[in-house]
Amino acid sequence: MTNAATSHVVHARAPGKINVFLKVGAVLEDGYHEVATAYQAVSLSEDVRAYPADDFSCEFTGSIDTSGLATDGSNLAIRAARALARRSGYRGGVHLKLEKNVPIAGGMGGGSADAAATLLACDALWGTEATREELLAIAATLGADVPFAFTGGTAVGTGRGDQLSPALAKGQFHWVLALADFGMSTPGVYQELDRHRERHAQDIFPAQAQPTVDANVLQALRAGDARMLAESLHNDLQAPALHLAPGLGKVIELGEENGALAGIVSGSGPTVAFLVADADSALELQVALSASRLHVVRATGPVHGARLVHD
């Protein structure tokens, strides 16, 4: 590949996600778990601006406190940029400005969205002309949720969540998201799930080797039926997340008492996603939860995956 980089800034955007269904299989030999999940990309997104540079660096902007985030080579966006440079033979670097809007360590795939947007932005900035399949292959090496942040929409994820097949979804779903003022470690929540299953080995069914997504979830998405989807929301990581952060249970109760069709911990938490019937219900719930001093935002889904934004 050539070094035919452009000299301007490139702006890319990628969405956060909600796992409307997440079943976790038994732990594998490598320590990971087989999962079956239904992802929905939502309108809370990450914005990445890529500037020409000789080396690799990043900085954060936005309203979210990013003081605890790495800006060195361990940052997922920088890892994404380096992976594309390696794969394409590009010999320069990039400076990334990451505008954070998705909760950090919140179970909504914000870091994965950063990585997906970075791949797209750097490909355009450097003129590497990678195919969509090549970018998706790099995305899969970076983390289980990165390929979905790249494709967006609604999809079923299997394997570690990175083997995607599109799912049909009609219309628009309305969500109200209660954001916590703390993060949760995804590996920590999975470890707590393993301990939870050991503690309750007599009472609960053993984990499936190869879990699948409930057909009712796919039917509700296809029909665009929020009430049907509310009855089918499921997350195996919710019980361990509630064990580690018991206050989340009260948040779910509060939302469901104030008009939510259903509430669910998103991914590994601690964000709680409430599904509501329509935009008016979303606004009413946002007001009610804000009155209880919760930090709340509204979002809709599904939305597109990573894309270039022309400022």
TrEMBL record:
<dbReference type="InterPro" id="IPR013750">
    <property type="entry name" value="GHMP_kinase_C_dom"/>
</dbReference>
<dbReference type="GO" id="GO:0050515">
    <property type="term" value="F:4-(cytidine 5'-diphospho)-2-C-methyl-D-erythritol kinase activity"/>
</dbReference>
<dbReference type="InterPro" id="IPR014721">
    <property type="entry name" value="Ribsml_uS5_D2-typ_fold_subgr"/>
</dbReference>
<comment type="similarity">
    <text>Belongs to the GHMP kinase family. IspE subfamily.</text>
</comment>
<keyword id="KW-0414">Isoprene biosynthesis</keyword>
<keyword id="KW-0418">Kinase</keyword>
<feature type="domain" description="GHMP kinase C-terminal">
    <location>
        <begin position="218"/>
        <end position="291"/>
    </location>
</feature>
<feature type="binding site">
    <location>
        <begin position="103"/>
        <end position="113"/>
    </location>
    <ligand>
        <name>ATP</name>
    </ligand>
</feature>
<feature type="active site">
    <location>
        <position position="145"/>
    </location>
</feature>
<dbReference type="InterPro" id="IPR020568">
    <property type="entry name" value="Ribosomal_Su5_D2-typ_SF"/>
</dbReference>
<keyword id="KW-0067">ATP-binding</keyword>
<feature type="active site">
    <location>
        <position position="17"/>
    </location>
</feature>
<comment type="pathway">
    <text>Isoprenoid biosynthesis; isopentenyl diphosphate biosynthesis via DXP pathway; isopentenyl diphosphate from 1-deoxy-D-xylulose 5-phosphate: step 3/6.</text>
</comment>
<dbReference type="Pfam" id="PF08544">
    <property type="entry name" value="GHMP_kinases_C"/>
</dbReference>
<dbReference type="Pfam" id="PF00288">
    <property type="entry name" value="GHMP_kinases_N"/>
</dbReference>
<dbReference type="InterPro" id="IPR006204">
    <property type="entry name" value="GHMP_kinase_N_dom"/>
</dbReference>
<dbReference type="InterPro" id="IPR004424">
    <property type="entry name" value="IspE"/>
</dbReference>
<keyword id="KW-0547">Nucleotide-binding</keyword>
<comment type="function">
    <text>Catalyzes the phosphorylation of the position 2 hydroxy group of 4-diphosphocytidyl-2C-methyl-D-erythritol.</text>
</comment>
<dbReference type="InterPro" id="IPR036554">
    <property type="entry name" value="GHMP_kinase_C_sf"/>
</dbReference>
<keyword id="KW-0808">Transferase</keyword>
<feature type="domain" description="GHMP kinase N-terminal">
    <location>
        <begin position="75"/>
        <end position="153"/>
    </location>
</feature>
<protein>
    <recommendedName>
        <fullName>4-diphosphocytidyl-2-C-methyl-D-erythritol kinase</fullName>
        <ecNumber>2.7.1.148</ecNumber>
    </recommendedName>
</protein>
